[in-house]
Amino acid sequence: MIRDVIVQGLIDLVGRDAALYRPEDLLAYECDGYTVHKRAPRAVVFPTSTEEVSKIVKYLYENEVPFIPRGAGTGLSGGAIPLSGEVILSLVKMRKLIHVDLQNRLAVVQPGFVNLKLTNSVASKGYYYAPDPSSQYACTIGGNVAENAGGAHCLKYGVTTNHILGMQLVLANGEIVEIGGAPDMPGYDLMGILTGSEGTLGIVTEITVRILKNPEGKKTVLAYFDQVEDASHAVSDIIAAGIVPAALEMMDKTAIEAVEAGNFPVGHPKGLEALLLIEVDGIAAGIDDQIDEIIEVCKHRKVTQVKVAENDRERASWWANRKTAFPAMGAISPDYLVQDGVIPRSRLPEVLEKIRQISEESGLRIANVFHAGDGNLHPLILYDARKPGETELAVKVGSAVLKVCADVGGSITGEHGVGIEKQNEMCFVFTEEELEAQLCIRDVFNPNNLLNPDKLFPKPSRCAEMRVAR
Amino acid sequence: MLLSSVVEEARIQSIKEDSDDIGNWGEYLISPRTEEEISAILKYAHEQSLSVIPVGGGTKRGFGGTEEKADILLSLADYKGVVEYSEGDMTLTVRAGTTMQELSEYLGKHQQMLPLDPMWPSHATIGGVIAANDSGAKRLRYGSARDLVIGTRLVYPDGKVLRTGGKVVKNVAGYDMNKLFIGSMGTLAVLTEITLKLRPVPKYESLVILHLPQVQNVLPFAISLLDSMIEPVSLEVLSPSTNFLLNGKEQYALAIAFEDVEKAVHYQEDWVHTHKPENAVIDHIDQEDARNWWRRFSELAPAVIPGTDIDSRIALKIGSKNLDALDLLVSCHELGEKLGVQVEAHGGLGHGIAKAYVGGGDLAKYAGFIDQLRASEKAAYVIIQHAPLAVRRELDVWGKRPPYFALLEGIKKAIDPKRILNPSRFVGGI
Lengths: 470, 430
Known about the structure:
GO molecular function (chain A): (S)-2-hydroxy-acid oxidase activity
Radius of gyration of chain B: 22 Å
Strand content of chain B: 25-35%
Strand order of the largest sheet of chain A: 15-12-14-13-17-18-16
Organism (chain A): Ammoniphilus resinae
CATH class of the domain at 97-213 in chain A: Alpha Beta
Largest sheet of chain A: 7 strands, antiparallel
Cofactor (chain A): FAD
Number of helices of chain A: 17
Number of helices of chain B: 14
EC number (chain A): 1.1.3.15
Helix content of chain B: 25-40%
Keywords (chain A): FAD, Flavoprotein, Oxidoreductase
Structural class of chain B: alpha+beta
CATH architecture of the domain at 82-200 in chain B: 2-Layer Sandwich
Shape of chain B: globular
Distance between the termini of chain A: 57 Å
CATH architecture of the domain at 97-213 in chain A: 2-Layer Sandwich
Helix content of chain A: 25-40%
Radius of gyration of chain A: 22 Å
Oligomer: heterodimer
Strand order of the largest sheet of chain B: 15-12-14-13-17-18-16-19
């Protein structure tokens, strides 16, 4: 017998097979990709249609029960972690590709549809979906919308918000609305504010996305450096040469050590200080000239070795090596915490130096993997949760790194979101008035704070504490 | 008025002459030179419940609004110039009153550009372009304001100065508040600074005008082009009258622009030559000539241009699913013939926005034109981007309220509860 009337009510709505409520069944929903904080939800329900989402939301809204939408649970900032007995609406059963219209270059998907599956579904026709977070084999497009996910190729092609054309949405009170659908719809850009709102403004139940034609040509360059500074300068020089690479990635010594010990080693030489992975795509006739220019730039910056991928297989192996950098940390450290700061590209050398100092002072190793082209750093803080106090230290180190990013005019998150992880760090980049202005918008969509409550924004009292003169 | 207590008297001008036929005028014209002044003016207006119309170059004064004048016409025209330019980061922070032309001249010296091609760059300011979300044919490749604005500074109706976004190209900290103000028609806040993502100036550019004697040849060709791997910057259909104005040939045409390294540009031009319909004729220009052509293109739209007579035509913006822009454009052309009005139209296949400039008619004809266009299933919306005040008062500028209007209204109420900014300028009377 179920004692929780809310759980019973949910089961009445969706059926016993579409709800989890036994403590042992809830374990998998205690956290997402951010594992520092864990708490069980009150229940998990698995709606299969927009109408069902709407019914569930109406029920929860009327009973004033807080709730959280969840996709694959790959989020890295804890946005899908329950804080106080929320009900989770898992959207993984809404995973259909509803419609593809190649002539108008769009596809309509349900929120639980996996990112990479979309590209796979249209690849035979020569099309793809551009945003490519490293977790794209697992993460869902609904989750991508909530987080405004990026990826390695957003330097040239933009992040999720640049690829969303329309959405169907269940509001906090259960009402279903359609927004977007044509470019520049008259009215305030609700799609723009929804994308990246981390599940606090509505539950997206259908998404129309832009798909792109594969570029005619693509070449990938791998360049090794003896000094991080040389690699940083090479990044700036490539951009200054008027080249817009499709991707421009960098890894430092510790990161290289990890990926070589991970599942997809490519045999990078030992003792490297930095490597760049650079991809140029577009009209085939124009690519070779750009590749020559990139190689010249690297040589000018004392590259020790620079090579162009000979075939798709080699390119794919380089990318697999790079894209699995986070999990590869497991090969060299029991635990790791990934950060997501953004800096103006031109400040790279000084920021890396400061991160090195933070690492030295704390005694925790930091591996750096990042989208160098757009200044999005992923410092991976390596620690051992079994050692008392080290988890807390890692969290503190992460925050210190974000402070460095904020202080050079950057941001505390480029693609992972704020979630619960960076709530207090919001004060590094926004004033109280600016946070208040954002909360006013939340109140328009989510007046009772039932929808993914208490995420994203700092607790009011914490700001003064966190803020240091800006 | 005690405005002189919040802003230097020299910045305030009482407008003696009557409003022209356009409206959106003010009792007082105030041209602040600092953000503090802008903030002080709004704070004062808020306290006194005075209505305020923010204005830049004034080109869009005929866009929305049913009032002859507000209490204050707040001109940002003197609040201009570059605040911060980081060449290596390809980002720029600029004051709202800077014209698009000033901006491209500044950036051109560094071989960079803001890839946004709105109408009348010589007069339109960046603040106005962003507030009205104007864009041009090249959005096919480069996107629109929402893809390029990474941060703003703005003043809320009560005088609070706030920032949205940031100064880096990738940023998901908090809500993407930038988006709220893009296209908000100055109904939420006054933009003072805008931070933008730039691109390198393309190493080479060209424009292929493909004249198509049969309209039925346009769509199959456009579809094959979009399904190919070439990457045009524009794929803009020109109606016969528009093509005649720009290129002297009265038939449908496609304006296909390429911007890339020179080899890649020529390769793509060759593709068009090889794949064009048999009876199509090609005009081909490049570099300076192409830039001049685009400048003329950007001046097709009726707008309020200082020192010239009021343009009594109406300008329509029509949104649709990408390829449907062609049908809508053809409808505009045919409606023009049926109703006996002069119509120039163009629209982007691949981005779904068409424009029609309608003249030589009266209110009844314009109303008929718009009603019939709005009745088309393919038109997601038809809005009036420019019209004299008398026309705007009779015809619905924005069309009917969307089903989610309560959210729009909620946002307005949350930010401008006293409705002092641009009252009734926007969708559904917001």
